[in-house]
Specification:
Order of helices and strands: HHHHHHHHHHHH
Radius of gyration: 22 Å
CATH architecture of one domain: Alpha Horseshoe
CATH class of one domain: Mainly Alpha
Strand content: under 5%
Largest sheet: none
Structural class: mainly alpha
Helix content: over 70%
CATH topology of one domain: Serine Threonine Protein Phosphatase 5, Tetratricopeptide repeat
Number of helices: 12
Number of strands: 0
Shape: elongated
Length: 221
């Protein structure tokens, strides 16, 4: 049976952790990044684990302390922590480390193993593109759209890479979409990229792409 003073210390610790977590969440919600980092540091000191180190990495990331965030997130097994680690490495231009965080070595490069679903696939596509691996980037963007057809940025990058068009600025996208993305071209490229996928998936992405182009072209230039 625990002594009263031991029980009191344990109760006090639980209370502090709960309050510090509430303070962290409040700080994060109100964009108080430095304050969020302060409370996350207290949480890690009191209860070091993957969850609290992820919160600390998240606070450092928002506070633009990317190197510190990367250091604390290394070795964290949580999928969300690995995705955040990849974001940090990507912004620091450490492409190999970003890829390693997104793809576990045991996965053997299998895109089904990428952490954080569609968002992870999109980030991996960006990492591959930055390293000049065009085909791998196209595959990542396509798989991203399979999982979440609302990922407009993935569709945009996939389109430019597959159609061989230079990527315009965001403001000029509407102006070039109507001349570049014809229904015929979209049908051809979707069929080519999706040749090794299920036919229904190819039609799904093609239909989504066509709708996006129509929406884009309807906007004022």
């Amino acid at each position: 049976m625990e002594r009263p003073e031991v029980e009191a210390v344990s109760s006090s610790t639980i209370s502090f952790v709960s309050q510090a977590k509430l303070a962290f969440e409040y700080s994060l919600k109100n964009l108080l990044w430095k304050q969020a980092a302060f409370y996350a540091e207290r949480l890690v000191a009191e209860r070091p684990c993957d969850e609290t180190t992820y919160l600390l990495g998240l606070a450092y990331f928002h506070n633009q302390e990317l190197a510190r965030a990367q250091w604390h997130l290394q070795g964290n097994k949580l999928p969300e922590a690995r995705y955040l680690l990849a974001k940090c490495c990507s912004q620091l231009k450490r492409w190999d480390l970003a890829e390693e965080a997104l793809l576990p070595s045991a996965g053997g490069g299998n895109l089904n193993e990428v952490v954080n679903g569609a968002a992870g696939l999109f980030l991996l596509g960006q990492v591959q593109e930055r390293q000049g691996r065009r085909e791998q980037a196209v595959e990542c963007y396509f798989r991203c759209l399979q999982e979440c057809p609302f990922m407009w940025e993935a569709y945009e990058r996939w389109s430019w890479l597959v159609l061989g068009s230079p990527s315009p600025s965001r403001s000029s996208t509407a102006g070039v979409a109507s001349s570049t993305f014809s229904d015929e071209k979209l049908a051809q490229t979707a069929a080519a990229v999706g040749a090794r996928e299920a036919p229904a998936t190819g039609r799904h992405v093609e239909g989504f792409a066509s709708q996006c182009v129509q929406t884009c072209c309807a906007r004022p230039a």
